[in-house]
Design goal:
Helix content is about 40%, strand content about 10%. The chain is an alpha/beta fold and about 500 residues long. It has a 7-stranded mixed beta sheet, sandwiched between helices.
Amino acid sequence: MEQQQQERSGSNLKPMDAEQLREQAHKMVDFIADYYKTIENLPVLSQVQPGYLGKLLPDSAPTCPESLQHVLNDVQEKILPGVTHWQSPNYFAYFPSNSSIAGFLGEMLSAGLNIVGFSWISSPAATELETIVLDWLAKALLLPHDFFSSGQGGGVIQGTASEAVLVVLLAARDKILRTVGRSALPKLVTYASDQTHSALQKACQIGGIDPELCRLLKTDSSTNFALSPDVLSEAISNDIASGLIPFFLCANVGTTSSTAVDPLPALAKVTRPNNIWFHVDAAYAGSACICPEYRHFIDGVEEADSFNMNAHKWFLTNFDCSLLWVKERSALIQSLSTNPEFLKNKASEGNMVIDYKDWQIPLGRRFRSLKLWMVLRLYGLEGLQTHIRSHIAMAAYFEELVVQDSRFKVVAPRTFSLVCFRLLPPPNSEDNGNKLNHDLLDLVNSTGSVFITHTALSGEYVLRFAVGAPLTEMRHVKAAWQILQEKATALLESL
């Protein structure tokens, strides 16, 4: 009976009460702080089997309210075992998704205010702060003035890079169709390297672009898997000769597979004469370009029509926070604007303000700029530069460890904090060691002590080691390499 009463003590929890919030939020912060205190001891990659949670939770929602403590106990016992711990210092998979104290505090404040900032009037600070912090970062990245809000363009926070490429592709599509007529939609062609994120293909599907006309141009090791301007130029010439209409190029600064960097200035010389929208996707590596020694990787961005980087990847800003700049905001607005009667107001009608609802797919939007503002304020550009440089230094150290072990080889140049490598197969291996490296990946990840992922480059199965978790130190890199060596030894001895 006493336990039932304790579990029902949540029945007095109001939807929002200042003192109850204070009490319950303190418990939640303590829980999260304890999680981070012990995260290093948890298996990085969840070890559960599909469907595990349905066996642990009831098949219907509770009729009576339960206590927060009861819920947190279930989080600890049932939810956390099914979590892959992206913030673990032993997480080296995909790309990082940084959290930080500043990002968390900004997210907490955003959740507390809980505004829906679709238009300026719905919460003026949400719009104006977003404009300001995007200008701050444009300045830190030395972006051209065209990308600042004081010009014809400006910055906007999207949820992800997938949303960013979608909205600019739609803007580019509609811009060209206003010239050639909407009936020409089946003739529109997009271009990118075969290393480009699959988000581009999804954007084409959503935007009504023929999937066959999404040209993913072949790359290889001769260009370090970057897009060749000559290959692009030839593809465009062939398409024009066939009566098609080239309209969009997605170039990359830091591809997912190997952090390849496309030659932006040379590509611009191809797109400009052909009136092709030039988008630069720097979702991962854009963060590094606030460091002067890495800024040259986006040289040529002044020729681009749009530029995107994810603050939630490597910039200590909790997910989601994808930053998009455009030179011509009117192109976005013409594609995405709606103006129903219930949203009309004096500020918007008088063109005195930005309404970010017209720069994105959904109407509603969160107060995301708060967390980015807090990150910039509480760490400063110097702190963020130090954060990025430390990860690059650790990746360089890991790369050197791989080079020193003759059983392994580095497959692609390390540009930022990703190392692509593989275990060399014995002579006359039937599949060039692809199964061997697949098995090595499985053995390493099954330990729970480290998590890495893979890609394919020129038909080879390649392991990826991405340094970027905020808690990662050199000792974690050394420990990961030791596990890799031990598992490689065991595999090679079993052959």
